[in-house]
């Protein structure tokens, strides 16, 4: 695909989903300048629902990419660089620097430094005096936290400022996304490209029905600490790993401050669990683990609320793809259109930390399809004239 080719015309894009994946994809397209972008979603920024994962995230940047997984490292690096830029330049984005701590109750045998040592600043091993009771080994490094609901609103504003639109609409199937016009003027207003960013919705969406998708329930507790402790608390984010597990199973202990004075305490990782209500018992356990790890900060914390979100997990990993397809919305009765069908969903617990990288990747894949899209359409116009 030569750049000159994609600059020739403006392509109309319909995106399904206004979570961090849909919004990041929209922004990446609008930054290219030759796309007109419309987002359609049931749930929009500023709202909270069990069917909308993005507002519930911590979120901080801590990559789990394996040392050999260069593709995931690329996605996480692109996102880290964007977040660092936002932390440096734009307080409205809700992204701030702080010191990340990884604590291991038992030092892993043959510990290897994580790959991201080469991109973060101030990476070091913690001294014995810096480790909480019950922790054998730890590392520290400079990272960022993202105030998730604030960041979603920020993305929304960036999209609207660049001419994109975001409308509330529940879309009954993938093919119906290809029917929503960009203008009221007949078929010519129909999109050239559709992008599915429906998160866990991809499991039941007709035309996708991705049965590799499943929920991983996360309960969190949001607290405030006494004002005198906030200057210290806002510098500190951490994950603590129990023996034998990098990520923790069932439970995961983490602490993530947000730029508005709230602190997110985690959490749970419960596969296939859809339970919407927060469990009081789990809230107590989460608090207990935070106090055990940082008694100086959390012994007198005030609980604001307990919340539950469902991570859009996917066996086989995230789906980021694009292909030219004939979308037939009238069961073979000739009412069809050739479009680029793209997907960006299934980010499990890393939807924020890979968001920019995944958005860039899906845009790259879309651009790789444009030449084929144009030639297939030109060929069908020629056929129609004969
Ligand atoms: C407790 C918790 C903590 C987390 N912590 C972190 C963290 O620290 N770091 C990190 O990177 N990630 C974290 N995550 C994961 C992250 O939140 C998700 O990976 C991410 O939010 C997924 O975003 P998404 O846009 O793909 O999906 P969603 O946010 O669920 O968005 C899906 C969108 O699609 C729309 N939709 C779906 N179906 C339809 C339909 N048929 N018609 C119209 N609209 C539809 C929805 O309304 C919504 O707008 C955490 C998640 C949880 C629950």
From TrEMBL:
Could you say which residues bind D-dopa here? 254, 311, 349
Q: Name one Pfam family in it.
A: DAO
> Which residue numbers delimit the FAD dependent oxidoreductase domain?
13-364
Would the keyword Protein transport turn up in this protein's UniProt record?
no
Q: Which residues bind FAD?
A: 53-54, 171
GO MF entries: D-amino-acid oxidase activity; FAD binding
Q: Which family does it belong to?
A: Belongs to the DAMOX/DASOX family.
Query: What is the name listed in the Swiss-Prot or TrEMBL entry for this protein?
Result: FAD dependent oxidoreductase domain-containing protein
Taxonomic lineage of this organism? Eukaryota, Fungi, Fungi incertae sedis, Mucoromycota, Mortierellomycotina
């Amino acid at each position: 695909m030569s750049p000159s080719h994609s600059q020739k015309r403006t392509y109309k894009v319909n995106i399904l989903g206004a979570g961090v994946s849909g919004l990041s994809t929209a922004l990446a397209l609008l930054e290219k300048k030759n796309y007109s972008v419309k987002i359609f979603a049931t749930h929009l920024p500023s709202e909270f629902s069990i069917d909308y994962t993005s507002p519930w995230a911590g979120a901080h940047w801590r990559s789990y990419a394996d040392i050999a997984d260069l593709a995931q490292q690329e996605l996480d690096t692109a996102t880290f660089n964007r977040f660092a830029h936002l932390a440096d330049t734009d307080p409205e984005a809700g992204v701030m620097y702080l010191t990340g701590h990884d604590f291991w109750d038992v030092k892993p045998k043959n510990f290897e430094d994580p790959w991201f040592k080469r991109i973060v600043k101030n990476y070091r091993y913690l001294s014995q005096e810096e480790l909480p009771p019950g922790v054998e080994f730890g590392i520290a490094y400079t990272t960022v936290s993202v105030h998730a609901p604030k960041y979603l609103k920020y993305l929304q504003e960036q999209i609207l400022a660049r001419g994109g639109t975001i409308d509330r609409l529940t879309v009954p199937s993938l093919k119906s996304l290809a029917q929503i016009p960009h203008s009221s003027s007949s078929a010519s207003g129909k999109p050239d490209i559709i992008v599915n960013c429906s998160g866990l919705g991809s499991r039941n969406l007709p035309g996708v029905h991705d049965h590799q998708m499943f929920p991983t329930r996360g309960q969190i507790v949001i607290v405030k600490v006494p004002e005198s402790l906030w200057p210290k608390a806002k510098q500190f984010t951490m994950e603590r790993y129990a023996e034998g597990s990098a990520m923790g199973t069932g439970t995961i202990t983490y602490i993530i401050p947000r730029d508005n004075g709230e602190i997110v305490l985690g959490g749970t990782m419960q596969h296939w669990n859809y339970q919407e209500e927060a469990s009081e018992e789990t809230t107590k356990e989460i608090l207990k683990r935070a106090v055990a790890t940082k008694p100086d900060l959390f012994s007198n914390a005030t609980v604001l609320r307990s919340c539950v979100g469902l991570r859009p997990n996917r066996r086989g990993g995230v789906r980021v793809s694009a292909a030219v397809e004939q979308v037939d919305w009238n069961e073979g009765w000739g009412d069809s259109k050739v479009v680029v069908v793209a997907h960006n969903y299934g980010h499990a617990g890393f939807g924020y930390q890979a968001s920019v990288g995944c958005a860039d990747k899906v845009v790259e894949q879309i651009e790789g399809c444009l030449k084929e899209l144009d030639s297939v359409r030109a060929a069908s116009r020629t056929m129609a004239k004969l």
